[in-house]
Amino acid sequence: MCYDPGRSRPGALAFFFLDMRVWILLWASLTGLLWGCSAKPEPPPQSADAPNVILISIDTLRADHLGCYGYGRPTSPELDRLCEDSVVFADAIAHAPSTLHSHASIFTSLLPHNHGAAWQGKTRLADECLTVTEVAQSAGFATGAFTGGGQMDKIFGLDQGFDFYEQPGAKDFRDIVRPATAWLDRRPDKPFFLFLHTYETHHPYEPPARFLELFDEGYEGELPDEISVDLLREINREEHVLAEGDLEHIVNAYDAEIRSMDEALGRLVAYLKEQDLYDDTMIVFTSDHGEEFGEHGKIGWHSHTLFDELLKVPLVVKYPAQEHAGTKVSAQVRSIDIAPTLLEALGLPVPEVFSGSDLTPLADARQSESRTAVSRMDRQASKDVDSVRTPDWKLFRGQLFDLNVDPEELWDTALNRPGVVEQLRLELEDAVASRERYSGPQVVPKGATLDELKALGYLQ
Ligand SMILES: [Zn+2]
Prior knowledge:
about 450 residues, Alkaline Phosphatase, subunit A, 4-stranded antiparallel β-sheet, binds zinc ion
């Protein structure tokens, strides 16, 4: 069952409110009963020995604009160094091209169809949904978050399980890393689970000049250095016709934002090494969705399709003690696999309600199979809002794309391959039907949250 161990619950789950020592003693005998997972003879980690976790989500970060994912421009030297100590999942798929929908899948290991948290309907993540944070908190981890607010505002319910969930009102990652390291300086004497989120690579693109110069040398067009949301709206409504070099200029500004974010990531990693925390910390670096630059009709935009430029995200996992360092996994994986991977690595049981599964068997070559990814657009009133993706095929809006010969997803082959279409449809139905569907209450953004949402282009 889906439940929240941090709040009052009736019935058999009340033992979560017992003293932690009693809880630990009960652990080995009751986890199979409670979580419905396979027997786990090990007790949970003692505080002194457990690794820490830092889960980093860089909003709107395309995987293919990063050096460790093959990009030819110097956007990510610090991340590339981190990748050398990590497992790089080359083919990671997000479950939505928008922020709340996608992050809720990361935290609950449920598809958007099932967790129900949605921006369009202003639907908060249901309190009954279990998050990876709540499991970590129950096991004695100090849990904290620094996020960019907006669709990540705590009113949408992603704060479940966090001891604190701060929204510093900052777009740049350095303004998230700074309070995070300040908190680490005074952290409690127990392992921590820290979530960091930034909108630095989300529009508007306003990179520091020193980073824009790295990528934009020679641009002589009329667009400003800072690419505003209003300008992108005009371009996408075809009220502003791009001249030669303008699209490249916009992409340059996006790349410069990545480089600025990357510098802050480097500061965080340097801090962890200075404080002797690096080896004992599991770092997961990912994004909630990508960004389109003209592949299917819009520029500097997301949330409107389920094509790969919006679904392929980075997923880099640095294990404690740099285990599996340098491994590159080519099998397709999904954002819902992050939560179970974290819990398995921490020695904690994976709740049966989670729909993803541990990625470590792919990292140590016990498995090699790809995992089918179901994604959904956050469009309340629209039809055809789902996609199903395997390494070979993508089904979206009734169209079938052969990704081996048509990676740009331009040619519909559905009429030629009805069997594949039917198989993918069944996989979608099975994936959604395999878990309960939750629906949280509606919320009304106010005050600073409204301002953040307007600045990010979610509201006009
Ligand atoms: Zn986002």
